[in-house]
Design a protein that fits this description.
The complex is a heterodimer of chains A (about 180) and B (about 190). Chain A has about 180 residues and is mainly beta. Chain A has 2 helices and 11 strands; from the N terminus they run αββββββαβββββ. Chain A is about 15% helix and about 50% strand. Classes of the chains: A mainly beta (about 180), B mainly alpha (about 190). The interface between A and B is medium-sized, with 15 and 18 residues.
Chain lengths: ~180, ~190
């Protein structure tokens, strides 16, 4: 009957693993959530210093992966004092009403060339829209590096509306890049 | 009117530089003083962009003007006391320094503040710093404002001296910086 006990224990331990992917711990000191916008025809880099990412990912089973990210919008830093004073204001992120952005995945897909895409919903400045991330996952020792990329349209979320909607001054496309160092 | 300077008057090129830069300084100073009062709107961004473009234009013209001046003879001064000659030379030298240093300090401030820089939206102008530098930014802004007020003071003295030469001394110091083929006001032999 020993073989039966073995089967039962394998099933018991295997079941939770099949239902949800491996949970990783994000190393906040080495992880970044950055973006690139354009202002007066020049690129500028920004980042959110504070965000909380829950990452469940197993490269052998991306179908059961899950990302859940909450961003503290007030932590925005674009290395320009005047811009960093304007961004939290009503015309841009309006952090008094919308202090946090939230992204959660709904589905992962593997496309023809082997790349992994994560479909999800981004809630930003009171607007929820579908967003797709490209996902690159690489094991490093016992940990991993997760790089995700997408391009958002700032006006989809009303960031810089009204007088600031002029996309010849502030570009509409904002490339977002997340670089997460995952610890076991 | 000849293009080059002669012993009795400034040539057309020197005059074009002189009056062109004078007009730009007036426009630039007026924009600079009003733009800082504007609220944070796209209009403010556009007015600042204009101020930067005019400033870069002045810097380029100042460099060309200096090169032209150094390759030219300079009309000889009417007779005047030594202190007046020294004061005139010193203020002219200072004006050259200021029309170079003012745009440069603005460019430095813009760089240290990590703002973009485009000449009339056509030519990208590189930053002088590696991104944001709050200490240098504050210093450059103070310097920019200080140099502006010094410029206003020296320009006022320069203009007052030109008018004094014209109306009180009745010499041709002002006329020789004005277009038109006026014969020299001063009598030959009296001053030279």
């Amino acid at each position: 009957m020993k073989w039966m006990a073995t089967i039962v224990s394998v099933l018991v331990f295997a079941l939770p693993a099949a239902a949800s992917a491996r949970e990783w711990k994000v190393d906040p000191a080495h992880s970044t959530l950055a973006f690139t916008g354009t202002y007066q025809d020049e690129k500028f880099e920004g980042r959110f210093e504070r965000f909380d990412a829950k990452v469940g990912y197993d490269p052998a089973d991306p179908a059961h992966a899950k990302f859940d990210v909450t961003v503290d919008i007030a932590s925005v830093d674009t290395a320009n004092t005047e811009r960093d004073q304007a961004l939290p204001g009503k015309d841009f992120f309006d952090i008094a009403r919308f202090p946090r952005a939230h992204f959660v995945t709904t589905r992962f897909r593997q496309v023809a060339n082997g790349a992994v895409l994560a479909d999800g919903t981004l809630s930003l400045r009171g607007v929820a829209k579908p967003v797709t991330l490209s996902v690159k996952f690489a094991r490093v020792g016992s940990g991993a590096i997760l790089d995700v990329d997408t391009t958002l349209k700032r006006l989809d979320f009303g960031v810089g509306g009204g007088d600031w909607a002029d996309i010849s001054m502030i570009g509409n496309d904002v490339a977002v890049h997340g670089h997460l160092v995952l610890l076991p | 009117m000849p293009l080059r300077n002669t012993d009795t008057r400034w040539g057309a090129v020197a005059q074009a530089f002189h009056w062109g830069i004078a007009i730009l300084i007036l426009v630039q100073g007026s924009i600079g003083l009003t733009m800082v009062e504007l609220g944070m709107t796209p209009t403010k961004v556009k007015v600042f962009a204009l101020h930067k473009s005019i400033g870069l234009t002045i810097l380029a013209l100042a460099l060309l003007r200096l090169a032209w001046r150094l390759g030219q003879r300079v009309p000889s001064d009417p007779p005047m006391p030594r202190w007046q000659r020294v004061a005139a030379r010193a203020s002219h030298f200072l004006l050259y320094v200021l029309i170079l240093a003012l745009p440069l300090s603005g460019w430095l401030f813009n760089s240290a503040a990590n703002f973009p820089l485009e000449w009339f939206g056509v030519v990208h102008v590189p930053s002088l710093t590696h991104g944001l530098d709050p200490v240098l930014k504050a210093w450059a802004l103070r310097t920019h404002a200080l140099l502006f007020w010094i410029l206003i003071g020296v320009v006022a003295m320069h203009a007052a001296a030109a008018l004094w030469h014209h109306f009180r001394q009745r010499d041709d110091v002002l006329l020789r910086m004005l277009p038109g083929d006026r014969s020299p006001v001063r009598r030959e032999g009296t001053f030279s």
